[in-house]
Amino acid sequence: MPDTNDWNADHLNRLSSQDEIHVSSIRRDGAPRKPVTMWMVTDDGHVYVRSVKGVDGTWYRHVRATDLAHVAARGVDADVSVEDASTDAALANRLDTAYQTKYQRYAQQIVDSVLTPAAKASTLRLTPRG
Questions:
Q1: 70, 90, 97, 107: which could form a disulfide with 24 (CB 3.0–4.6 Å)?
Q2: Tens digit of pLDDT for each residue in 63-106?
Q3: Is residue 33 within 8 Å of residue 26, measured between CB atoms?
């Protein structure tokens, strides 16, 4: 039986087909902050994002304060849990390849912004809640 916290195939396809998704960090009082437009990739049925500004970026610090967020893109509106995914070197390599493949039509300098050591250190897995 699949984990109830996995993305369903329809949502994964919708998210994957978009260049950009909107991710709102959730405040401690439960209110969403203004959404941030981000690139995302998938690996083995999981959704990942990276902060271009790394772990010191405002968005990253806000989202890690509660480890809760809301994702919106192409008909997907999902409350998600956020967890650090930056320590697995093999995953990091797969995500680098996924970013380079998905966003290859963009200038390399732009793609490189999600491949820096700082961005890699901010890799987060987004998992649907309930």
A1: 70
A2: 999 999 999 998 999 999 999 999 999 999 999 999 999 999 99
A3: yes
